[in-house]
Specification:
single chain, alpha+beta, six-stranded mixed barrel, globular, 25 strands, 57% helix
Amino acid sequence: MIKAALKSVVAHKLRLGLTALAIVLGVAFVAGTYVFTDTINSTFTTLIDDVYQGTDVVVRSEDPGFGVEQVGLPESLVDEVRAVEGVGAVAPSVEGIAQIVKDGEAIGGQGPPTLGFSWTDETELTPLTLRDGRAPTGSGELLIDAATADGNAIATGDVVTIVALGPPEEFEVVGIASFGESDSLAGATLSIFDYETAQRLFNSEGMVQTISIAAAPGVSPDDLTERVGGVLPQGVEAISGADQVDETLAEVAEGLSFLNIALLSFAAVAVFVGAFIIYNTFRIIVAQRSRELALLRAIGATGGQVTWMVIVEAFFVALVASAVGIVLGIGVAAGIRGLMAAVGFTPPEGPLTIEPRTIVVGFAVGLIVTLVSALLPARRASRVSPVEAMREGGSPPRRRSLATRAITGTVVAVVGIGSLFVGLFVGVSNAIAYVGFGALVTFLGVAILSPLAAKPIAKFVGWPLPRTIGVTGKLAQENAMRTPRRTASTASALMIGVALVAFVAIFASSISASVRASIFDNFPADLSVQYTNFAEPGMGGISPDLGRQLREIDELESVSPIQFGQFRKSDGGIAFVTGVDTATIADVYALGVQSGSLDAAADGGVMLHVDTADDLGVTVGDTIEMEFALTGVQSVTVDAIFERNDLNTPYMLATPVFHQNFTSRFDQMIFANVAAGSDLATARTAMEGVAADFGNVEVQDKGEFVAQQEAQINGILALFYGLLGLAIVIAVLGITNTLALSVFERTREIGLLRAVGMARRQVRSMIHWESVIIALFGAILGVAVGSLFGWSVVTALADEGIEVLAFPWVQLAIFIVAAGIAGVVAAALPALKASRLNVLEAIAYE
């Protein structure tokens, strides 16, 4: 049977070609995801090894276990550590965020951060290698990384502006360095200063962030770690350089895990869509080969052998397609890198890494999905009746009742929708698992039920065709209606892709509408200053000196900076907290204080959103525990409860209180109101004049602020569309494959139509319009299912600030029209083949 299966694959290579292509694309996405993330991990591993090469012990504050806060150490510890027996070299490090500005334009920061460090002359404890110039030795001197220099045409002797926590300052570039063997630290923009300048810039006078130590000859890192740890005060720890490398790599892996999960989710969609095509192809092929299979049964083959023959065919198709997909995955990895860079997330450069796991997973995905998808058609092949199938002209397929399918599909759909409901509306611990399972099962339920809708929807969609193009349109409509199972299974793949695209469009439109409503309704501020770089709270922001300078502008009445940070709640969870100026926040943001007062909170209390207060069971005057990286556990009095949560941080602290508990002094945004008697344009011009020196900020009015938020949403939307586009491509290939098989199956029918006078052009038109009806059917189902998902998710997130449900009707209509165009494209080759059939040979076809 294996030999027969191989011959069958060769004999039907054209029929199986597009099926193999669906497998290739699905496996390529899976393999490409692993290659991409493995490459990033490998790059970071190399870089981090370079960073800590020669470092035997690292002294640091004890890890608070949350946020990105880095608590400093007293500078006096440096001499204490240096005096420990066995210490060879010591290099204290002062670190912070420093933005390089050249010709008024900020450099870097749209992906990797803009970091600043202090220089050390201890060569064994620095990964930096001077490539040109010299090290900085005094105030006003700067060393930068080679990638930043090369990418921005900066040479030694040039003068640039540095923005840190104080006012912008000019520095001369006196040196350019490489980072180990790399020109940069994973794409980060690096600024290196002398020790005293770094302390001043990063508000770290008398402090350091870490102390790196090299052991004296003959002293082991473990022994030295123990000795150094013995002289350290409480709250400070010593770990070996190897442990520091492992911890840093673990943090990188955790940070990248979301990216891996997201990309694999898109890969799963592609594979899921491909499974429909594989199933449909083998189902049609088995039906078309009924006489061939019956002949095998007649000469002694058992039902099990026939089943295994079809499975073996699927195995060889999957084997070859998976191998091709894995190779193609390398190109997909490069494409993902380019796609992310196009939307502003620049991943670090590095050679592609192909792990054995990638190859194993690629083959496993291709083989398992293909074999499972081919299993039902294979079982159906074993039930072919030799006598019936070998009759002259064959026997028409037995039309089974759709009642069983209706019951099964309804049950499956109910289970899927129920799981979605639990994940979205019930407070379960692993809600995303319920949502993912519910979405998958709902798709299956709709796919099972779709044949019930195929005939009426195909009739509705094809209704204009007989009246506009005559008999050709009538035949196309009837072809789509007479085999509802085939029409539905062909359209199901497209339905999944369109449903996901429609969901993303609805979700994004709802976010945009919610942001627009929130800003115009709840932010009475006339102008705002936004940070143009991408950074986590605590890893960059607006220099607080900008806020101080803006307060001196006569045209402005209120200037209100906002800060963001993270803390640990009493239940161990991590939450965001906002720092606000209690004297001005009410002027720029409709906080809606329900009880208590902002003035009371200025003395050290916390302000809570009403829902958070209810969840905690507290009112004004009660206390809650908040654990900060800098100050530890603090018992904080609830001084105010507010109604609005448009900043999406249900905890607020007065700015002075925020600064007491966080090392970061950066503002994340600044809101301002125009003074009475001044006009908006004049005030804006004054603000822009001050902000121009900072480089990484932008002054906006309300409309521009909304447009910026929408642009960010649209950028992410473009990434989603690009990734989901693969599923759409696979679905279109599925339509092409099904139509090609349908043409083969209807060879005699098409030949008879030609014999009675149908022109080739009419045959092509018939196939094209049949494809359009199938594609529109899939698109209509997809938009309906996507709308259901969109409504569910937006409703579930109403308390998170997404309060407006918006349907982008124009976009949804475009999706349906695009599906019809895709149907025309999908039908091109099958229609051409049908029109070229030899009439006499077609009529004589068995």
